[in-house]
Automatic annotation (TrEMBL):
Naturally occurring in which organism (per UniProt): Chloroflexus aggregans
Name this polypeptide is given: VWA domain-containing protein
Protein origin, superkingdom: Bacteria
Length: 349
């Protein structure tokens, strides 16, 4: 029974991190086994770590070496940056073995092989390589033919642009100021649609409605500006906005350095926000900006009229547009991750 429990426990062991506190492990084992006659400690190792100091150990220690020493070659660093001539790429390769290494390195841009070259690395040494790749590649992968016992570190992938491209659909009759800001945003593809002919497009990342509200929320990001009364966003009329804007705790992270004070907002709707919408900024006790999620839609509401608004002539306007659009989209993946670093991914369910 004891052997069965031990084998079950070993099967569930998962190796994490890169450090090993052998001394601490022996101390714990000794503490647990001192009152058991005939007990001994068995240390299973691949021989990579030096033998522990057993001078103070009061129990017999049996060291079992498993496997044999294998050389390892690895991609230590891979970084990419987009420039005027294309994608600038930097890589650092290391040879941790005791013998010289010579082998091929392959570069793939968006899963297409673009370059192959042979490299030589001295024992226990590293080399640095640079390339300039033409074209608009989004993802670069480096494959290093290490031919060793640790193949996982022979390959590395890096995203060239941390910010993902956005397809934005603007549903409005007139919105020249907003169009200019959206067209100035890098990686944004803008489509303008008349409200009378609008139909949901599943390929759109963010849909912006001005002076209109859809019959149902489209999937993805949604920004509604100056919404009229509707089933989705009911209101009880309009009132003159107060010039003082108060940020709520939910709006601090998105708007804390966007200056919204001293703006004549004009008439704003007296919105009755549903439970899933949270105010970000208030004019008096009336929501001016709100944010929430409904089923598969990330939704933001700007409760003011952009037409002839002083806001469009201030620096706060492009800042507010860019931050709102990016906030409505899933966050981009980091350009690269070190092996073992946790990554939190929000699924669109």
């Amino acid at each position: 029974a004891g052997r069965s429990r031990l084998l079950t426990a070993l099967a569930g062991v998962r190796v994490e991190g890169t450090g090993s506190d052998v001394g601490g492990a022996l101390t714990i084992a000794e503490t647990l086994l001192l009152d058991q006659p005939g007990a001994r400690v068995v240390w299973l190792t691949d021989g990579a770590l030096p033998p522990p100091n057993t001078m103070d150990l009061r129990l017999p220690l049996q060291i079992e070496v498993l496997g044999t020493s294998q050389p390892n070659r690895a991609v230590v660093t891979l970084a990419a940056h987009r420039g005027s001539a294309g994608v600038y790429l930097y890589a650092r390769l290391a040879n941790y073995g005791t013998q010289s290494f010579r082998g091929p390195v392959r570069l793939l841009a968006d899963d297409q092989l673009t370059q192959t070259e042979t490299v030589s690395i001295q024992p226990n040494a590293a080399i640095e390589l640079t390339w300039t790749l033409p074209g608009p590649a989004q993802q670069i992968q480096l494959e290093f033919a290490g031919n060793d016992g640790l193949p996982l570190d022979d390959t590395a992938t890096v995203n060239v642009d941390s910010q993902r491209p956005a397809r934005v659909t603007l549903v409005a009759q007139t919105a020249s100021a907003l169009v200019r800001v959206l067209q100035a945003m890098p990686d944004v593809t803008l489509t303008v649609v008349d409200p009378a002919t609008y139909t949901p497009d599943p390929t759109t990342n963010v849909t912006i409605f001005i002076n209109t509200v859809p019959t149902q929320w489209p999937g993805g990001g949604v920004l509604v500006i100056n919404p009229p009364g509707s089933v989705l966003l009911p209101n009880t009329g309009t009132r003159l906005a107060e010039p003082v804007v108060t940020l709520t705790p939910a709006g601090e992270s998105l708007l804390r350095d966007v200056n919204l004070s001293g703006i004549a907002w004009g008439q704003i709707g007296v919105l009755e926000l549903p439970d899933w919408l949270t105010p970000l900024a208030l004019s008096g006790d009336t929501p001016l900006l709100a944010r929430g999620r409904f089923e598969r839609s990330e939704i933001a509401v700007w409760n003011f009229d952009l037409n002839n608004s002083p806001l469009v002539g201030r620096l706060a306007f492009p800042l507010l547009v860019v931050r709102t659009v990016r906030d409505l989209m899933p966050p981009p993946l980091p350009p690269s991750l070190t092996l073992g670093t946790p990554l939190t991914y929000k699924a669109d369910l």
